[in-house]
Backbone:
């Protein structure tokens, strides 16, 4: 567990370094809880840059996380709240979930999520095809 924490810390600190270099200023803020952990928010282009960085790639490899072949395509997966940025918490959460081999439960979770989404889309289509409702009295 300490190994994982250290590798994640290395990645987070590297993100802070890269953002400071790119933007010519320190865009990271430090948490009062742990002054070695930087907080950040990555836009899509920053995220793509980070996911190609050798230090980040090495830490990912040591954590048994496969290299992300299409970082731009994975941005939305990391951006859980869909605000157009990947926060430090989102980054660490997804990295933790990507560790190790995919198992049956991962596949089942995807299938269940897709079925739920299909049901929601079908309900929405039904509502839209019914047309506007008359005002209730």
Residues:
């Amino acid at each position: 567990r300490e190994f994982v924490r250290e590798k994640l810390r290395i990645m987070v600190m590297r993100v802070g370094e890269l953002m400071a270099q790119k933007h010519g200023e320190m865009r990271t803020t430090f948490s009062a809880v742990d002054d070695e952990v930087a907080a950040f928010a990555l836009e899509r282009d920053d995220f793509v840059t980070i996911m190609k960085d050798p230090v980040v790639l090495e830490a990912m490899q040591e954590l048994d996380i496969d290299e992300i072949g299409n970082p731009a395509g994975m941005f939305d997966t990391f951006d859980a709240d869909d605000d157009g940025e990947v926060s430090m918490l989102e980054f660490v959460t997804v990295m933790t979930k990507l560790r190790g081999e995919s198992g049956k439960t991962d596949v089942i979770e995807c299938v269940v999520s897709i079925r739920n989404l299909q049901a929601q889309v079908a309900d929405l289509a039904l509502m839209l095809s019914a047309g506007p409702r008359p005002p209730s009295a």
